[in-house]
UniProtKB/TrEMBL annotation:
GO molecular function terms noted in the UniProt entry: dynein complex binding
GO cellular component: dynactin complex
Source species: Vanrija pseudolonga
Family affiliation: Belongs to the dynactin subunits 5/6 family. Dynactin subunit 6 subfamily.
This protein's name: Dynactin subunit 6
Location relative to the cell: Cytoplasm, Cytoskeleton
Low complexity bias (residue ranges): 1-11, 20-38
GO biological process: mitotic spindle organization
Length: 235
């Protein structure tokens, strides 16, 4: 009787040699250092802003969300919208006369010494930037339209900076003889800055009475409506 042979046990194939990756090294790789966020001691230390000292006359509305720094005095009926900014350097002061309005994201600063004064019924519209000078910095009834900019000069009465325009010490319309005791150049009364080239022209005062009534009515409307939807800063 023929014996059956048991099935052959398969032999395992010899292991293939593992080739090292060209970028790998025979020595164990050094783990990368995990970047750490800078500690508080390494961050730039900025001095805290000066505490706001606000004095205001009757009929003002100052939003609790207004960003105020330094010494600020407000005449009767001024309106400071939420998210507006008025920043005054330590030891200096800013006075906004009766009926001034500072709208959302507008920034009014005074980094000089002494006091800066803004004339009555001046309006700082949305996102404008105004750097005041000492003394009578801005005359009454001026208008800073949205995203306009003023730096280092004075404004006479009823001046207007149209939307997106800019005026600094190099503007050709400035008058050195109107600068006052501090020798700061001034934009003459009723000057309108307009256009991409920041051109200047003089307003002939046409419709001034109507414009005055409209401005007063708009400010009165703000004083009536804003407190209904915004918290007022504690006096």
């Amino acid at each position: 009787m023929t014996e059956r042979s048991s099935p052959a046990t398969p032999t395992a194939a010899p292991p293939r040699p593992v080739r090292a990756h060209p970028s790998s090294s025979s020595s164990p790789s050094t783990p990368r250092a995990t970047p750490r966020s800078p500690s508080k001691t390494h961050r730039s230390l900025r001095p805290p802003p000066p505490p706001a000292t606000i004095t205001q006359e009757v009929g003002c509305f100052v939003s609790a969300d207004a960003r105020l720094e330094g010494s600020i005095s407000l005449g009767a009926g001024c309106v400071l919208h939420p998210r507006c900014s008025v920043r005054v350097a330590p030891g200096a002061s800013v006075h906004l006369a009766d009926g001034c309005v500072v709208e959302e994201e507008a920034v009014v600063t005074f980094s000089g010494k002494g006091a800066a004064r803004v004339g009555a019924h001046t309006v700082f519209m949305v996102a404008c930037r105004v750097d005041l000078v000492a003394g009578d910095a801005v005359g009454p009834w001026c208008s800073f339209m949205p995203r306009s900019r003023l730096a280092g000069v004075r404004l006479g009465e009823r001046c207007t900076l149209a939307a997106g325009t800019s005026v600094d010490v190099a503007h050709p319309a400035l008058r050195a003889d109107l600068g006052g005791a501090e020798d700061v150049p001034q934009l003459p009364d009723r000057t309108i800055i307009h256009g991409a080239a920041n051109a200047a022209r003089t307003w002939d005062a046409g419709g001034e009475a109507q414009e005055t009534v409209l401005r007063l009515s708009a400010t009165e409307y703000l004083r009536d409506v804003l407190p209904k939807f915004n918290k007022q800063r504690a006096a």
